[in-house]
Amino acid sequence: MSNFVEDLQARRSQYALTSESPISDQEIVKLVEDVTVAVPSAFNSQPQRAVVLFGDANQKLWDIVKETLRPIVNDEEAFKATEAKVNSFAAGHGTVLFYDDTDVTKKLQENIPAYAANFPGFARDAAGMLQLAVWTALSEQGLGASLQHYNPLIDEAVAAEFGLPASWKLQAQMPFGTVAQPAGPVDKQPADARVKVFGL
User: Fold this and answer.
1) What is the C-alpha to C-alpha distance for residues 181 and 34, in angstroms, rounded to an integer?
2) Where is the Nitroreductase domain (predicted)?
3) What is the pTM of this model?
4) Which domains does the chain have, with CATH numbers?
5) Contact between 27 and 137 (Cβ < 8 Å)
6) What pLDDT, in 10s, does the model give residues 8-25?
7) Residues 6+ apart with CB under 8 A from 81
8) Is the previous residue joined to 182 through a cis bond, with omega within 30 degrees of 0?
9) So what's the pLDDT on residue 1?
């Protein structure tokens, strides 16, 4: 079996994270940069964007999440559970924010109107490929991560905090760090229930 498949199999949703990292912050940034450049996109349009947060910037993100959710989760006991969950993400070493630059899709829709209805879906495909690729690359380096979706509730506050372009639409948040307690096993459907082969 190739290392690629083994790396995909090793990638898991890891929720118990610490603030430690087996590699430097500079290496993490380089990894995210290299993966972002390498991952494909329809028409080579490259709408994927990423923001990497460490230290106080990472803490600020998860503070924004808690501040945004506090008026929504108005039951005190329920909010304690929500706060504990968000704090577990903040306890990690950092977070990658994944964005779609909607200006790229709009330009494609204008330039190639025959495919206009398809381009938002193509952008989502590109975003998903980048998320999986970064997730797997972090895992291969010994970092656990999970994929969170507090967007669109936090979009405006996060964009304002970090001075991000209005055309960037938040897709997902990926807290990462050293795994404190590995995730347990999960059930997987057998391949023959999900993959059909003809003509072999």
Assistant:
1) 29
2) 9-177
3) 0.95
4) 3-193 (3.40.109.10)
5) no
6) 999 999 999 999 999 999
7) none
8) no
9) 54
